[in-house]
Structure formats: C-alpha cells, structure tokens
C-alpha cells in the first residue's frame, strides 16, 4: 500500500473534551442583547448597505452614460474611409 492511501480508522480523539460544534449550536443569538440598540445605527439611514454601496463609486453612472453616448456617436457619425473599399484594402491605390 502506498503511504498516500493510509487512512485513519476513525476521527481523532478529543483530548480536551471540548466540542466546538456543540458550543456553536448552544451559543446562538442571545434573547436580550444589551448592545443591540447601540449597534442599530450602523445599519440604518445613511449607513445602510445600499447607501454605503451607492457611495463607493462616485461618478460611475455619469461616466457610463457618457461612454455609451460617445460609442453611439462614433458608430453613427464618424466614418472610417480607410477600410471597406472594393480595391482589396492595402493595394496600389493605398497611400
């Protein structure tokens, strides 16, 4: 048998007797959190999740609209006379 295929017979014995899964399930949310009122301001009003995200990228909306307008203008009004000739592109008539 290769040494990479050796498996243990079962889970390791817990030397301390502490069970983290039982501790996490018992911890839960306390019934009466004394800090709940003092922490509530962090998630309301100007500090709500949406308002924090909205302020993360100032000018992104204006920049997106301006870029889309420029791309539309370029597509519709700026002619590229260099390409698309029936001469085959870079032939003798090209300067």
Automatic annotation (TrEMBL):
Task performed by this protein: Accessory subunit of the mitochondrial membrane respiratory chain NADH dehydrogenase (Complex I), that is believed not to be involved in catalysis. Complex I functions in the transfer of electrons from NADH to the respiratory chain. The immediate electron acceptor for the enzyme is believed to be ubiquinone.
Gene Ontology biological-process annotations: electron transport chain; mitochondrial respiratory chain complex I assembly
Topology of the protein relative to the lipid bilayer: Single-pass membrane protein
Cellular compartment(s): Mitochondrion inner membrane
Protein name as it appears in the record: NADH-ubiquinone oxidoreductase B12 subunit family protein
Coiled coil: none
Signal sequence extent: none
Keyword field: Electron transport, Membrane, Mitochondrion, Mitochondrion inner membrane, Respiratory chain, Transmembrane, Transmembrane helix, Transport
Gene Ontology annotations for the cellular component aspect, listed alphabetically: mitochondrial inner membrane
Family listed: Belongs to the complex I NDUFB3 subunit family.
Stretch list, region Disordered: 1-33
């Amino acid at each position: 048998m290769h040494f990479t295929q050796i498996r243990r017979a079962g889970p390791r014995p817990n030397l301390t007797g502490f069970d983290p899964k039982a501790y996490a399930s018992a911890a839960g949310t306390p019934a009466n959190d004394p800090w709940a009122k003092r922490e509530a301001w962090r998630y309301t009003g100007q500090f709500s999740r949406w308002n924090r995200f909205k302020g993360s990228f100032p000018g992104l909306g204006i920049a997106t609209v301006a870029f889309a307008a420029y791309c539309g203008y370029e597509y519709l009004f700026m002619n590229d006379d260099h390409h698309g000739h029936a001469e085959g592109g870079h032939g003798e008539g090209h300067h």
